[in-house]
Design goal:
The structure is a homodimer of 329-residue chains.
Chain A lengths: L3 H8 L3 H8 L7 H14 L5 H8 L4 E6 L5 H16 L3 E6 L4 H12 L5 E4 L6 H4 L8 E4 L10 E4 L1 H14 L5 E4 L6 H16 L9 E2 L5 H12 L7 E4 L2 H13 L9 E3 L5 H5 L6 E3 L2 H17 L8 E4 L2 E3 L5
Parallel strand pairs in A: 1-2, 1-3, 3-4, 4-5, 5-11, 6-7, 6-8, 8-9
Antiparallel strand pairs in A: 10-12
Helix pairs in contact in A: 1-2, 1-3, 5-13, 8-9, 10-11
Chain A binds a DNA duplex (30 and 30 nucleotides) through helix 2 and helix 4.
InterPro entries (chains A, B): HTH_LacI, LacI/GalR-like_sensor, Lambda_DNA-bd_dom_sf, Peripla_BP_I
Keywords (chains A, B): DNA-binding, Transcription, Transcription regulation
GO molecular function (chains A, B): DNA-binding transcription factor activity; transcription cis-regulatory region binding
Chain lengths: 329, 329
Amino acid sequence: MATIKEVAAKTGLSPTTVSRVINNHPYVDPKKRKLVMTAMEELGYVPNSSARRLRGQRTNTIAVIISRIVNPFFGHLVDAMEKIAAERGYQLILCDSRLEKDREMQHLELLKTKQVDGIILASLQNRWKDIEPYTRYGPIISCNEYDSAADMPMIVCDQEYGGYIGTKHLIDRGHEKIAYAGGTDRIELTRDRFSGFKRAMAEAGLTVNEDYLFPSFYGIEDGKNIFHRMYAMENRPTAIFAGGDEVAAGVIQEAKRFHCRVPDDLAVVGFDNQPLADLIDPGITTIDQPMKLMGTRAMEMMVDMIRHNRDVTYKKELLPLQLIVREST
Amino acid sequence: MATIKEVAAKTGLSPTTVSRVINNHPYVDPKKRKLVMTAMEELGYVPNSSARRLRGQRTNTIAVIISRIVNPFFGHLVDAMEKIAAERGYQLILCDSRLEKDREMQHLELLKTKQVDGIILASLQNRWKDIEPYTRYGPIISCNEYDSAADMPMIVCDQEYGGYIGTKHLIDRGHEKIAYAGGTDRIELTRDRFSGFKRAMAEAGLTVNEDYLFPSFYGIEDGKNIFHRMYAMENRPTAIFAGGDEVAAGVIQEAKRFHCRVPDDLAVVGFDNQPLADLIDPGITTIDQPMKLMGTRAMEMMVDMIRHNRDVTYKKELLPLQLIVREST
DNA sequence: AAAGATGCTGAAATCGATTTCAATATCAGG
DNA sequence: CCTGATATTGAAATCGATTTCAGCATCTTT
């Protein structure tokens, strides 16, 4: 309620001097500094941040665009980001695209309208050509998802490698009829993962059965459905590589319900290494993604870019993926 | 980059008229409206939101304070909130208190410094007397957690009842030596839940064994630890009521590892009814909390209070809890 | 034809800070 | 005693919008 003017009036000084006190500028008489401090205290004065934003052209706010906060993967990612942001004095605006292109574009407007200083894209529903125009309004970096056409800093994992090691592991276990439930096109991340799958298959001289490919799904229910679709086949696959631990968990749960033994009748590999992968029985063999590291690194980069006003540039950074073997294979 | 003045200059009109076009005011000549629109388009003009905030004294932003975003419970809560907020044209600032009092207080400052129009408290680390002073800066409501001393709108579940039905269920199954892992003091929510536990015990003429009480824990690892502490007792409890599904899951996993049969040797009740409660084997008997409803309702209230500038008031709203019986009991 | 209502427009004030610029005071060095 | 550096201060401009108020047409109504 109290403004800088009122503080000035109360102390008999000018707003300029009060501002100097607020911002710890040198050249303020120590006595007057103290005087201003107590006046601020008494009036319960706090600087209005809208005014500061307008004058300073900075918001100290960063937007994070994700696709589904209910996915624990993003929960961990956001958690790591929030931690760094808070340390550095930035707030986080949480933007959930809910996998919709339009919402994502709307969220990008935040940068244009100067509501945030930068944007971290952890969801990528749109093409680079649609995103590119926004880069002139402030830093945008991608984290987790990516688009090789894009000219922006990225913190990503080598998904092709992930797809490869997961598949290779199943092949090493003797499987030949391997299903894949992870999406095959649309998003580059899933496409690369699928490439890894195909590479491993080709290397082993195995052919990819079109009937064994399931479009991209995300939740437990999707996993259950996929199991049933496989179960209904006359020539069933003996293993499945799922695009996420939740899908894998759904497959496993339903398999158990129908007395299909895991891993003997059906081996399952997940992705992400979420806590639940270790919890259910059998534990899910999965690909560990360093979520914490990704989030931390992305936010560090972002803050650095904002602080140095783009004269720092980053390239693509590739983080390691790792196979975690449990009982489901 | 372009300002309203530049649009005005380009069209030969005044900033006032341009502003009218932007805000869809009546009394603008349709021709000039169109003229302004195309000029804005050509200049790539977008209103600067810091300026609007300053002048309008609104931010269209709401802060949500939670304790741990990695907890899927909060993930769902935030998801529901974000959905309503987006529909109504508000942004969400995610504040993670990480269970620390100080962080929570810092986040409350957002309201004072006019960075947000209102705050939803889904975490409550501080006492009402510390929070109360902030209410004069804007609406604050609590969601999930609560403090009966507090005079603010609340959306909460009847935790005493939750504690009661969970315990009653175990008693009905014939258990007498029942452990409780949910916190017994500190936060009112957990205290009430514990009261429900005690009421059910007393009603059945059972005494509460101090050794069977475990202080408040949150994660899977905590559940594992608790199992071991129980396992080491000479007079082991035959059932445990855990403060969350994750804790319950940890207990169950470790029990299985040590060949302690669930529910025969140890019955387990969780809390929250998270997806994982249905996923692990055996499924966890738990108390369903309507997270989606809580989040939705809280955000609806918040927006309503902001829009009507506090001349609407809400009271405490109690949402239903429900026992979900699965195989762990 | 006068009075009043309605439509359209812009100059200037305002929101609450920060920054630029100039003014003044004080002090050291030559 | 003069010059130049170093402290200390405030008036006024600025950030980019919205709002108030007043002015002037044009159109009804009596």
